[in-house]
Amino acid sequence: MKIDVPKISEVLSQRNFSDIFYEEDPTLETCIIINSDFEHEAIDKVRLYNAVIKNCKFTHTDFSRIDITNVRFENCDFSNANLNNASIHRVEFKNCKLVGTNLAESSLGNVVFDNCSLNLATFATSKLQKVICKEVVLRNTDFFDCKFKQIDFQSCDLDGTNFDQTPLKGVDISSSTFDSLIVSMKDLKGCKVSTYQAIQFATLLGLIIKE
Q1: For residue 195, how far is the Cα from the chain centroid?
Q2: CA 69, 131, 82: angle at the middle one, nearest 5?
Q3: What angle do CA 156, 51, 30 make, to 5 degrees?
Q4: What is the domain-level CATH number for residue 94?
Q5: Looking at the domain assignment, is residue 4 inside a domain?
Q6: Among the four 122, 164, 178, 185, which has the fewest Cβ within 10 Å?
């Protein structure tokens, strides 16, 4: 699947994330931010545009209604951060930690999670379009009542992931692994699975498979 990559300027000014407190509105753009700690903070309607953000910590920070466009995050920690009602478009997360992150009621488009951890994160009632998860750990991640369009899970750990009330038509999970999923049979219709996964689902249905 081809997605739109972040459009980031070649020349970026060096900033610290805490500079956002000194802006007239909470916006950081056309910048590179490295090694900033912005933990246990609360700031509403943050806007991040045209930026590279590396090695930063945002644990337990409230970023409700954040707007992120054309941004690449590298080695950042969003564990237990609140990104409820976020708008995230043309964004890459590389080697990032989003354990327990709240992304409920959000809109994600043209987003890549690459080698990230999203254990216990929630995307409940969110809209995801053109989202790729590559080698991502999604154990017990919550996708309850989400709208999926062009979603790929490539070599991911989906054990315990909740897809309740989320149709998986066209979603490819064939290269990913799990021991169990929370999903209804009707929502599995049209999902792309491996032969082994098909046997797993048959076992969950209570079928006895004879060779």
Answers
A1: 27
A2: 60
A3: 165
A4: 2.160.20.80
A5: no
A6: 185
Tally of CB atoms within 10 A around 36: 19
- List CB contacts of 54: < 8 A, sequence separation 6 or more: 32, 33, 34, 35, 73, 74, 75, 76
159-196 core/surface letters (b: 16 or more CB in 10 A; e: else) = bbbbbeebbbeebbbeebebeebebeeebbeebebeee
The whole-model pTM stands at: 0.94
Strand partners of residue 48: 28, 68
Residues 132-145: tens digit of each pLDDT: 999 999 999 999 99
Predicted confidence (pLDDT) per residue in 42-58, tens digit: 998 999 999 999 999 99
Domain around 177? 13-204
Cα angle 107, 109, 68 (rounded to 5 degrees) comes to 70
Quote the CA–CA distance of 71 and 60 in Å, as a whole number.
Answer: 21
**How far apart are alpha carbons 180 and 177 in whole angstroms?**
9
